[in-house]
Design goal:
With 478 residues, this protein is an alpha+beta fold. It has 14 helices and 25 strands.
């Protein structure tokens, strides 16, 4: 039985179609195809088809499930870029058995190039003449210069709009405006397209949100930096933006300090972080996060002297920012227009973007050591709210290291290695001496090799020596 008998549109393998008998553990061969499709015009990958004659060699449902898990796990861990992927099952019968072919649709990427990480090296592939091959310099330049400025939240999904999917959003709007959601008003935001399919930004508000890159990690540290291994509390969350706000707010409210100032005839109660300032900082991180950055997270960290909310994505359309206290001079720049529209609709943001001004206003009576500030470096943006109950104020030491998706780290030496390699190229011998370890294959292959594989260390050849430097797109000192 041939593939075209259950999928009549199939003719032969070409620029947009490839067949695989099975997806194997050695994923490089088929991940190249996925990346190549995404960097060109998209394509279809059929699994359960013999590539030599296109006859069916389908799978039962249990095997299909394992193949899908293998596919998505490898794509998530090894491909960098925002991919639009859909999977379908093509059913047929053979000798009384129900069998299936896995059809994987890979859309052309909005932002190119899509990068495949292999043995720690970033590789770019394209699909031409029915073959997957490394991109030429000319093709790389073409991809970079012909990218259209696409915003994550304006991309249409294939999820149909249904008002019953938004109870959390309805409750949030009602709590702030005393009004429920209105379908006509949502349409005008816009919330869905002419086919009544949600935009990806709207999908982030669904009660059941399966959009990637929504992870939030909230932690409490006993000191002024992350320098100690001791963490008092740490909780993680993934889900819709309304639950995300509640999670972050409740985490802070239940753990922040409270104090008071004595007055002549009584006292004035003081919260560590003013309620309105905290609200604005949390909403800002959710609204302006770069949802294109795979494997990333918003980090909310409570230190002895301050609260720091760090979100993926630098200050939009701006270069690096050193710690900046004059927040009023920053114009509102929206990375996610449609997400901001929803928050404005719920009276959680204002159309003219006065969130920073409200934070300043809440700290108006504070001294110089208790002024809120922002900073941005590489692909991270941070808002810092000083703890008003901590008399000495904020003092930041620039000796701690921060990485996107810190959960990918394995070894207790990882942060030390990244910090040591941040400013200079270091070879294995230097790293071993710095750590006080032997120059062993375990250090080279397991510890350093993992940091290279996840893209936090970049290998550099200097003469005959193999050196390493921290990838400043994913690692920053702060």
């Amino acid at each position: 039985m041939l593939l075209k008998e259950i999928y009549p549109l199939f003719q032969v393998e070409d620029n947009n179609v490839e067949c695989k008998l099975r997806l194997n553990e050695d994923s490089f061969s088929w991940l190249k195809t996925v990346a190549g499709f995404a960097n060109c015009h998209g394509g279809l990958l059929f699994v359960g088809v013999k590539p030599d004659d296109f006859s069916l060699a389908g799978m039962d449902l249990s095997t299909i499930d394992k193949q899908k898990q293998l596919f998505y796990q490898n794509v998530k861990n090894r491909i960098e870029g925002d991919l639009d992927i859909k999977t379908d099952l093509l059913a047929y019968s053979d000798s009384g058995k129900d069998l299936y072919v896995l059809k994987i649709s890979i859309a052309e990427a909005c932002m190119k190039p899509v990068i495949l990480m292999h043995q720690g090296f970033p590789l770019v592939f394209v699909r031409n003449d029915g073959f997957t091959s490394p991109a030429t310099q000319e093709e790389l330049i073409f991809m970079s210069t012909h990218n259209q400025p696409v915003k994550f939240d304006t991309i249409a999904s294939d999820v149909p709009f249904a008002i019953d999917d938004f109870h959390d959003l309805d409750d949030f709007r009602f709590s702030r405006t005393n009004k429920h959601l209105d379908v006509k008003e949502l349409e005008s935001l816009p919330f869905f397209d002419r086919n009544k399919n949600l935009y990806r930004g709207s999908c982030l508000f669904r009660d059941v949100c399966d959009e990637p890159n929504t992870k939030i990690v909230c932690s409490v540290y006993p000191g002024l930096t992350r320098g100690s291994d001791l963490v008092i509390a740490s909780n993680a969350f993934e889900g819709n933006l309304i639950k995300a706000y509640r999670f972050m707010n409740e985490f802070v409210q239940s753990r922040m300090n409270h104090g008071f100032l004595k007055t002549g005839d009584g006292r004035i109660d003081i919260d560590a972080f003013p309620e309105r300032a905290l609200f604005e900082a949390i909403i800002n991180s959710l609204a302006h996060r770069d949802y294109f950055i795979n494997g990333s997270q918003i980090s909310l960290d409570i230190f002895k002297d301050r609260l720091v909310i760090t979100s993926p994505g630098s200050y939009y359309q701006s270069g690096p920012l050193s710690p900046t206290y004059d927040l009023a001079r920053f114009a509102s720049r929206r990375r996610n227009e449609y997400i901001c529209n929803v928050f404005c609709y719920c009276k959680a943001m204002e159309a003219r973007g006065t969130g920073f001004e409200k934070i300043i206003s809440e700290y108006a009576s504070a001294d110089e050591r208790h002024r809120p500030f922002i900073y941005s470096k590489n692909s991270l943006f941070s808002i810092v709210l000083p703890d008003l109950t901590y008399a000495p104020g904020v003092s930041i030491e620039a000796d701690s290291i921060s990485v996107i998706a810190e959960n990918l780290l394995r070894s207790k030496y990882d942060l030390d290695i990244l910090s040591y390699c941040y400013g200079e190229n270091r070879d294995v011998k230097d790293i071993a001496a710095h750590l006080g370890l032997a120059n062993s294959s375990y250090l080279r292959n397991t510890i350093i090799g993992h940091l290279v594989q996840i893209g936090y260390l970049n290998p550099i050849k200097i003469g005959n020596a193999q050196c390493f430097t921290a990838n400043k797109g994913k690692v920053t000192l702060k």
